[in-house]
Amino acid sequence: MEFSSEITAHSPKRGRTLVIMAKAPRPGRVKTRLAQSLPVEAVTELYRCLLDDTMALARSLGTVEVAIMCPASDVEELTRLTRGVVTVVPQKGEGLAAGLTSVFAHFAASGQQRVVAFNSDSPHLPPSVLTSAFGALTSHDLAVGPTNDGGYYLVGAKTAYPALFEGDGMGTKSALEALLARARGLRLSIAYTDTFYDIDVQGDLTRLAAELRLAPAKAPQTAAWLKRWGLAVAQLRTAAGDL
To answer: Residue 63, CB half-sphere, CA atoms under 13 Å: how many?
Structure first.
């Protein structure tokens, strides 16, 4: 992968920032669709495990700065939970669209950074996917990681585009389509990373459980949670007809 000409041997992380879109793991505020089938305390614990493993994934890249973007009300709690190992930045405004707008306004304002933002429930991503997103930004305006359900788990850019995340559709099956339409309206060149899945509903969790049974080291905190809640997750799988 090519590095920015501004990166020096004394500053290996300069020029690339990886931002995790996160919330504080509070009951009733995270993974609400899963909480319809599992105890809310268990779902809250799951989110914290996903976030811990996602941070470990981000930090494993080594040659990027890692930060968290979150609602302003969550900064103190996330700073405490992350023990100061990553920068925690408050977003301006409410909701995911405001959060993504804040990411690029904050980190890409100079035009000298390649910035990639991705979901906090993504420990199952191969590190190569994140690396490829940064690489794509050497020759494209935008990098996008589609999800199987019509959304996206990742977006990267070198410049802030205030209108890119405007409008409806965030968190819906039309989110990716809406993003791409706005990007084309701005005449941005787009590169795609591999398609993956989010951990939002029963089928996502059972899919992750099957993946981590084979490779628990990929997300050890989440794998340990799945062991503790294995019976409940198995019942979800049976109810969903995934056996």
So the answer is: 17
Q: Which residues pair with 115 in a beta bridge?
A: 17, 157
Tokens representing residue 47 in the block: 């989110």
Q: How far apart are CA 188 and CA 6, in angstroms?
A: 24
Higher pLDDT, 8 or 66: 66
Please give the structure tokens belonging to residue 95: 């909701």
Q: Is the pTM of this model over 0.85?
A: yes
CA–CA separation, 18 and 56 (whole Å): 12
Domain 16-198 coded CATH 3.90.550.10: yes
pLDDT at 233: 73
Residue 159 reports pLDDT greater than 80: yes
Residue 234 has pLDDT above 80, yes or no: no
Would you state the structure tokens that stand for residue 227, as one six-digit string? 């062991």
Strand, coil or helix: what is 222?
helix
- From the list 232, 243, 209, 191, the residue with the least C-alpha distance to 49 is 209
Q: How far, in Å, CA of 106 to CA of 93, rounded?
A: 13
